[in-house]
Amino acid sequence: IRATEDALAREGLTVELSDAIGEALGAKGWEEDAPDHRTLLARLARAREGLHRPFIQLGEPWADALWGELDAMSEEKRGAWEALLGCLPNDRPKPSKRWLTQREKKVEAVGEDALRQALVRWLPRVGERSALELSAIALPSAERTLVSPRNEELARGLVWMCVPLMDDVLAGVLGDLALTCYRKLARVGPRAPKLGNACIRALGEVDEVATAGQLWRLELQLEYRAARTQVERALSRMAGRMDLDERELEELSVPGCRLDRFGASVTRFGLWDARMEVGERLKVGVTWSRAAKIGR
């Protein structure tokens, strides 16, 4: 099936290829009650719909959004983006040095700010339910949120693009994406574990408070022990590079929520000050007082 998808991306849907896919879909032995068989049938059906492009498969909301933006660009600008996206698909747990070198050169052509904004638009949509109707097979609602193998490879490349551009926003995007990827689907298991692994690795590559905070968040919220083990290793490596023990790193990465060292915060509302204070047993109290007069 992957060979068929690659041929479609290179040459488009020919009559001969369409007929061959039709024969495969009509072959005996498929069990539509089996999730793995449904996944393969869906891939064949999408192939016959002509949804394959050089580096992406249409039919998933995030992929459709990405392709739509490319289609609306000028020819010169689209060429730079296609050159970048075309080198991104990655099926390895960690990108090679050659891949990283290619990435740096291609990013210059599209611009770091433009790429960062695109990542913030596209990655949060991974895992959204597809509205595409396939004539060959009806997919359960949960399985309409799966990420195809081709798109997962591109998404992994996009995740690794976040590393040199990392800020608080991208760190949050990767944390959310990891949770989406590891979310368990009925009769399928985690939605996209390899992509989730890439998110953890990417967060672990950047020694920042924001990335550490996302990793601690994942350790608390992920259900899969194997994923939590990866998070723990990433935090351990990060703490070592920052010359901290893990407890110190955890303390640094906890959001302060604008509280001072006494656990209090003052916010002004017109002529009044509201003082919020966290007391014993984590009880929160709010007291109001007239705001101090400001000299003219």
Please describe what this structure looks like.
Helix content is 55%, strand content 8%. The protein is mainly alpha-helical. Strands 3-4-5 form a three-stranded antiparallel β-sheet, with no helix packed on it. The protein has a two-stranded antiparallel sheet with strand order 1-2. Helix 11 (209-221) runs antiparallel to helix 12.
The major beta sheet can be summarized as: 3 strands, antiparallel
Secondary-structure element sequence?
HHHHHHHHHEEHHHHEEE
- The secondary-structure class comes to mainly alpha
Strand numbers in spatial order across the main sheet: 3-4-5
The DSSP helix count reads: 13
Q: Helical percent range?
A: 40-55%
Briefly characterize the structure.
The chain is mainly α. The chain has helices at residues 2-11, 15-26, 35-48, 61-71, 75-86, 97-110, 112-122, 149-161, 168-182, 193-204, 209-221, 225-241, 246-253, and strands at 184-185, 189-190, 264-269, 272-278, 284-290.
